[in-house]
Amino acid sequence: MPVIVVANPKGGVGKSTLSTNLAGYFASRGHGVLLGDIDRQQSARAWLAIRPPEARPITTWEVSEDNIAKPPKGTSHVVLDTPAGLHGWRLNDTLKMADKVLVPLQPSIFDILATQDFLRRLADEKSVRNGEIDVGIVGMRVDARTRSAEQLHRFIDGLKLPVLGYLRDTQNYVQLAAHGLTLWDIAPSRVQRDLEQWQPVLDWVEKKHGG
């Protein structure tokens, strides 16, 4: 059962946007998907509460302050949304569960500086170096043709972590989230450009270890 962790210790970088839409993709493929939320703000849980009953089902779990619950029976895919400031034992416990870690990152110098220690920590993690956990970075709210994207690439190149793609700054995500929906819950023609931007991220997520 693949467990995809969406993590960045900086707040406001798009973790919930990435995790909810990834869960929506898995649900659209007919998988039994669980969207876990260990963020104290419980953003993913609040989003699930407004998800329409006719939308493809996405489940969740109950978590305490000190424990990450296991997924219930019938779950085939897990997407785990994590809080800002994730570090220490909580990060270690989360990584023990993870098959892949997606790091959303905005290309401003402030976001890069706030995230660089976390990315170095991931790159140096034994399980990452041994290929047991895959780590990929997604540029959020960015145009791949801009200097900001080049700046992001220059920083990431030194860490030997892949930039999987870039998701543009669009109201599509905001408007869909407000209704508990994802890109995969509406007609593809309405969000074609966004679906195209997601494709390399999905290819990476679906790729098995050693594949």
From TrEMBL:
SUPFAM superfamilies linked to this entry:
P-loop containing nucleoside triphosphate hydrolases
Superkingdom classification of source: Bacteria
Q: Which Gene3D superfamilies would you find in this protein's record?
A: P-loop containing nucleotide triphosphate hydrolases
- A Pfam family name for this chain? CbiA
List the InterPro entries: CobQ/CobB/MinD/ParA_Nub-bd_dom, DNA_Partitioning_ATPase, P-loop_NTPase
CobQ/CobB/MinD/ParA nucleotide binding domain ranges (all copies): 4-182
Q: What is this protein called?
A: AAA family ATPase
Q: What species does this protein belong to? A: Herbaspirillum chlorophenolicum
